[in-house]
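input
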Amino acid sequence: MSVSVRVKKNMRNFGWRCAACIMGGLSFLVWGCGGGGNVSTPPPQVKTTPTVTVTPSSASLSAAQTLTVTVAVNAGNAKPTGSVTLTSGSYTSPPATLSNGAASINVLASVLAVGSDTLTAAYAPDTASSSTYNNATGTAQVTVTAPITSIAISPSTATIGAQVQFVATINGAASNSVNWTVAAPSGSGLNPGNITSTGLYTTPYPAPASITVTATSTTDSTTTGSITVTLSQPVTATGPTLLVDAGNQTHAISPFIYGINGYLLDSTTTTAAHPGLVRWGGDGSSRYNYKTNISNSASDYYFENFNQSSFTDLIASDSVADAATMGTAPVLGWVSNSTANACSFPSTSFPGQTSYDSHGCGSGIYPAGTNGCTSAGGCAISGNTTIAATTSISQPPPDITSPTTPVPGSVTTAWANGTWTGGWVNSILTAYGPANPVSGKGQGAAVWDLDNEPTWWDAVHRDVHPAPFTYDEATNGGIGTALAIKTADPTALVSGPVIDYWWAYFYSKKDIESGWGSGPCYQPWSNPSDRVAHGGVPMIEYYLQQFNKYSQNYGIRLLDYVDIHGYFAGSYQGSSVGFTTAGDTEEQQVRMNSTRVLWDPTYIDPNYPQPNYTTDPNYTASCSPPAQAPQLIRMMQSWVARDYPGTKTGIDEYNFGGLESINGAVTQADVLGIFGREGLGLGALWPTGANGQADSITQTPANMAFAIYRNYDGNKSTFGDMALASTSTNSTNADGESQLAVYGARRTSDSALTVVVVNKTYGDLNSTLSLANFTSSSSTAKAYLYSNANLNAIVTQPDVTVTPPSGSGTTSTIAAKFPAQSITLFVIPR
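output
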């Protein structure tokens, strides 16, 4: 075959194949026409567009501030490589290399435009990522404000005792975009007061001459404005009209109202304050063993036995201090055994508790996740007889309803002395004689409390008493114990039920806990089965009725004082002002005003709703019954009048706080004046006890408040013992006690008039004290002052003029200035 023939043949074959390729489509054409049909080219790879997230360090800033912007580039779980560039308006950042998919870019001050700016981050892949990822962008918004050139603050003055609203002006316009602080002058130890986040300032007292108020921009913390603010005392004003009527003697004032609890009491305090009574009480007293001088700290400290200073030591020191002693007789049913440091929940038996002391004694609380505890706050471990026996001895009180208790006419001292409390009282009688002899002052225990705060036996003493107290337990055990005391020493006085909780005045703890678990309201009054079983009578009134009944049966008064604990200090910013330091002037005014809880029918505290028993005249089905004016002293007196006439009233624990300050002293002096005016029979302050320090260290001002009534001249000279009708009336003829409170009494030993005036305001007040039905044998009266000018002593003042009645009048007068936050005493000879 010739060459030309072969070429033609090949051309024909090529033409056929190309025709076939065309019929098969373009892609096949490329493959078929490639010159052999066995070599292929793959299709191009599809790239991914990653997500770009832009996060500025602040969404709002001043133009004077720098900004950090974080840019993150993500493609699912992959981290693209490359760089990002940030732009906004005319600003473009240098490229920033990604590290693990992210980069930070610092934007300098003043490069972003004032206003709302869009930040755009542009991602560019590098060589390693260019075949996998597309370019991408992300955005974020920021607001840029004009640079702050000035922060001005106003006003520049404040009056002590008032609130002041400070205003910050930024660049000439009022603004809330600041943080506020306040400071006292350098080197000053005085409190500067408090300022809120909105600039509302509350002054302190005592106060420095000035303070510095600072406003810091929230958008630029480097920009601040400050002002020195002068703090001024209110101008001297005319105070309420004061009247003491020497011709209207209302009742005797008991020295027992000037009592202090023995916890942390030291000789310096007893010497200065000269209390009329010292109480041996508190949680540890419930299980005190007078034979071994061992007590148990209960939940206060690891349920551990400890060596207690002896009760007889207290009696001896009280005798030296010329104070009556008040003891605590157990009704709980247990006293400590003789084993010091024994405890109810040791680590060996109860591992995993929240904490232990150095002796391995546990808190009695399992944390969440231990021993099946699911409560975030932990779960309390309750006791039983086996646990109780590790620390305590069972000593049930003599139940007045028990067949083993002698019936009327058959009670003997042998029976009484055979009981735990009767034996204790007899030991005191043997050592010191009668508690309250007919003549002279007794040296033993003048008064016996019937235990302490039964409301919390099932919490504080849950290792030995895990069940809540009932009507019958507190009442019947209390009456039997009182019978033993009175039989062992007929001169001893008895006080009870020593209940401390508002709801427990009206319901037993069994009722209260049942109510907490009963819907729909879940309130202490929701399911009062115990009260229902006792005729619907409120708890303390039932207690009084039963004491009255058995007193008549046995022919002897079994209860001398109906006694409560009165922790009724008011609340400030959601917390009680009791057991706190003085605080600012708003807190101080809450403290001073809350003494009205003792007597004022118009004083309402939302923490104390009406008892809300179904037969109460003001009962409501609402789960939120209205508040009730407590009127503590007058309420107790009404109970007595209805249920056991002749019984005195007592409040042997209370604390209104601020005891380290003049404000606490003013409040305490007011409390003691109210006690005397309202006819309370017995009272005892419980100390704040900061860091376990002695009273003389933590509450000197409070001690001086006692001294005004008990030792104003350092020679144990006292306020009068016969109360006189006394009033403070303001310019609208209303009660003026929020400014000046006045308390008058005649001292029977020399017939002198004694008058205490308490200035509760932060400015000096001028007032005239009128002494109705009184003519003095002298043209002057002695004056004594306690104020912030000297917190360590009552200062004798120059004699004041007593203006005699004019013409046929019968009213003498004293014109005086009463300094801010002060206590003034006048002693006016008859």
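quick obs: The longest helix spans residues 3-24.
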